[in-house]
């Protein structure tokens, strides 16, 4: 009898090796979140942490209109499972709707019927998966190759059996969710509660790309204001999704389903999704709430997601929830969606956010660990809420902890963020996320865990964003735990600023008036790029922000006893003027005065004369003319193999053997270029794409593309060569920078 390899000698799979690591981590008890209370978390340094809850200021707001939908009580088999359809602009258009029509052989048929037949057939491999999905998504046959899914299953073969289980779960949609799901639209405060089994069913349908009308990229499409939900692009290797990290995002999703199917009973915990709207702008300039009314903690070692669970954790969001999670994005928000996949269901019904809105997600469970960030992101095994985070559920069955998604402004001109309107907008946005006075109109956790919100690719100044979030927390009555992401120096400076604000009894309104004085010419773009708001340079002298703040706050405190609003407003204007004067004088005084000792001896009455008896020499004209630009392109040199500058002439005896042609540019150079393009809005992520373009290609373009693939594929990231042949414009576009390689190849072939 043949026996398998000895267990000790068998090579461990990725999940098994990560599982052993996770077990050791749990035994080492290293996680930030093991502390029962974030105020006792050793990774944070706290100020004012002994405040009582009664000392924290809160405000009340009138509830206008707030609608709640709870679909969680619908359990399979426990109640009537008769499906109720709502195919209109107020509800999610479900795959199982009778109005979901697909044209097969030019005949309208039920798309759900096709989905049922396709997903009921055996799905054991990626090829089976591909055939099933493209049965009802035929127009994406050239776009969805599911290479990322294939790579993920090669890394973790045990997950391959999940394909059929996910298909079976997706077909239970009419029974698990028989009631229509409302769209959580703009400017409407609404909540939706689902149980975790229903969420898994919806994500299974997203995995198999069954949701209708959700793949269009046109700005005029029906769901242009909603994120993408179908996973076709995430699972496929294409032009906009070529990162290695995408494979690990897929592993996070597969691990989530592995956890769902690992128990006999389906999960029945609840998750609540809420859209909240701020009806009118808050007058922060009139706020008398002292900064010292809240506690502030800072950590350079703890990540937001590793902080204690019963907190408000900030999602540095795109206005479309999820950002580029289904595309190439892999930063804070995308990683959060991968380790807590139940957030992804929000992509189905959350419309993009307005400037006065925030999204609240309560009870989303964390399933995965990870390492790295951006291109280095990797799935690192299982995460257990109860064991690793020491988390518990509330009375409704939700895991304790809240995710708040707030989107910051993207600043192309970084100086503009110091003007009044952007500061007010960011304050309102942060307050909308932190306050208890908006939907769902009940107390949220009392500590906000955040960090450099809106910085990085968004261009925000982290010091300004820190002050904005501190003001919003104080006005909302929440303490702030700030993660500086390994920056010890910045962590120390935030504590110094907080101590200065508390020692001078600064209020939110006073700090507002200090901030708006920063809109001055002395704060140039270079200073802002160097992140020196707390201590910036003016001329030759350093003028710390804290010094300016203390001077201005003393001026404000002289009129602190005035009780009327008019007197308070006058004091604000007075302090603002004082800060402007201080900044101006600091700038002028920073330049030393230099006196010329010969100034008094100059004869100013004597007119200036210039020599006239000079001779014009044309001997040097020939050297000057060499510096003038050419008025015409000279003909290429004949009878040379290579010029001193390195220019190589074409060799027709070699190029004529190829089935394609390359026409050189008018200055006799090869038409091979690098272009940098901004990513499209439909990709829902930021950044640029770098491409190599070969122009003026005639004949068989595909033959040249095939030769370049053989040449460049070993040099591509992960061995994936992405190329586009455009015969109409006679050009070939390659993802990446390969100008030197392509040019040398064309020269070697005589072009």
TrEMBL record:
The keyword Transferase does not apply. Residues 158-275 form the PARG helical domain. One of its GO terms (molecular function) is poly(ADP-ribose) glycohydrolase activity. It is an enzyme of class 3 (hydrolase). GO terms for cellular component: cytoplasm; nucleus; ribosome. Substrate binds at residues 318, 332, 373. The active site is at 315, 333, 334. Keywords: Hydrolase. Residues 295-491 form the PARG catalytic Macro domain. It comes from the Eukaryota. Pfam families: Img2, PARG_cat_C, PARG_cat_N. Its EC number is 3.2.1.143. One of its GO terms (biological process) is ATP generation from poly-ADP-D-ribose. Belongs to the poly(ADP-ribose) glycohydrolase family. PANTHER family: POLY ADP-RIBOSE GLYCOHYDROLASE, POLY(ADP-RIBOSE) GLYCOHYDROLASE. This is poly(ADP-ribose) glycohydrolase. It comes from Rodentolepis nana (Dwarf tapeworm).
